[in-house]
Amino acid sequence: MAGRLYIPALAWRNLLPQLVVEETPITGTNLAPRQPLPLIRLEAGRPRLGRAFWGLTPPWLKVLDHAPHCARAESLESRAMFRDAFAARRCLVPVGGVYVWRPMARAKQPYLVTRADRGPLLLAALWCRFHTTLTDYNDSLALITVPSNELLAPLTDRLPAVIERDTATRWLDPQMPLAEARQQLTPAATELLGAFPVSREVNDPGNQEASCAYPIGPMLRRTSQQET
Predict the structure, then answer these.
(1) Cα 145 from Cα 158, distance rounded (Å)
(2) Is the pTM here over 0.90, yes or no?
(3) CA gap 40, 49 in Å, rounded
């Protein structure tokens, strides 16, 4: 499950064609749930970079601590919490990587999952809006998770779904049939992602030092030439 994100300064306007960027993007070395995240959603037919609270908070939610920061792809249409958002309010969260913790004999070892080429990742997500007054509102989101691929399964059983750049605008379109949206929620290709161990400094969500994201060992990765 994704409980911590690495979001460095990215080439924001190059993430998607015609992306509108009108505010300072959110960045952070070690971002945890219950914090704002950058998100991309479709507005007036164009993708726009904004921000939202990490933890889906529909208007009827009574306890903020119950706001889910992740949604399993398998339950998007069966759970009322996610059903409407999956149909009409899909978004993307641009990141540099996702932290996971590998079970070890004595203590869990944190890893940073990134693209193998260290480029940005566009993570599938849902968003909702809660109006506090007629004009004021709060936006929130949850990442959509899928089973990990064969390469990364020893590190974690689930990861956020990755949406490729060439299908990203289509993913954002609420007119896209749900069957087509579901087809995009699959484990990432083994050649796409890699992971390297990082310092246990990342265990503290208050630690935002750049060193949290530095590799302390080689990247676990697979190339198309390797045998599966």
Answers:
(1) 6
(2) yes
(3) 5
